[in-house]
Structure formats: structure tokens, C-alpha cells
Amino acid sequence: MAAIRGEVSWFCCGTAWGPCGTAGGGACGTCKSGNYQHAWPNTSDACWAITHPDTCGLSMSRRGCGFRHYTTNLCNGARVGTTIADCGPQTDLFCGERTCCGSACGSNRIIDLTPAAFSAIGSLSVGLRPCSVDTV
């Protein structure tokens, strides 16, 4: 998979952790806010039917539960490895959304990290960062 550039956000799942209350276990049933995990828009046909990244002009590989991606925050170069535990973000709701820090920009939400994973690359209070996602 070639690196995909876009936006990274964060979401809550599983048992209470940090700013999150208790939430469901995600599409894979294993999601926990305190683990290094993420949601991916193309985990299944059902997920794709909800997230529609193609509406934003994105082609994203089908990856199932447990697959590992690496997300790099383009603002500070910090990188984290996480595994798929849910379906999301709903990319089509954010087509054209753009987040920048200096000259580093990303458009369209392509990955949601758990709070623990997002905290490893940036501040939860920021919420969105331009990013690059790859598999190596």
C-alpha cells in the first residue's frame, strides 16, 4: 500500500479511558480507548457502504480487523503503529475538510485513532492533524 495522505482524528471505544466513558467494542468487538488501535473506512463491504471514501476521491485498500497501519502526524513527525478495531471514520461526511499546521496539510478524514494512540502523536485537545498512513 502506498502512503495515503489525509486527516487523522480520534474516537472513543470499549472501557472508560482518559476523556472517554464506556463505549461499544467497535466493529471488530475488540476496540478499547486505552489500546493503540484505529478505525479504517474499508474493513468490509458494510463498512464501505457507510464511510464512502470514494465520494471524496479516495481509493483505500480493504483491510480487516487486526491489520496494522502506521500513522505519521505531519505537524511533528511523530508516528504510531495501530491495529484495526473498528469501521470509520465516516469519510464522506468530511469531503474537502482541510487541516494544516504551517505548510503541512491534509484533506478528508482517513483514519480514527483511539485516544491512547492519538496521544502518542499529538494532543487530544487539537482533535485533527494532517497525516500520512502506510503499512511499513
UniProtKB/TrEMBL annotation:
<protein>
    <recommendedName>
        <fullName>RlpA-like protein double-psi beta-barrel domain-containing protein</fullName>
    </recommendedName>
</protein>
<dbReference type="InterPro" id="IPR036908">
    <property type="entry name" value="RlpA-like_sf"/>
</dbReference>
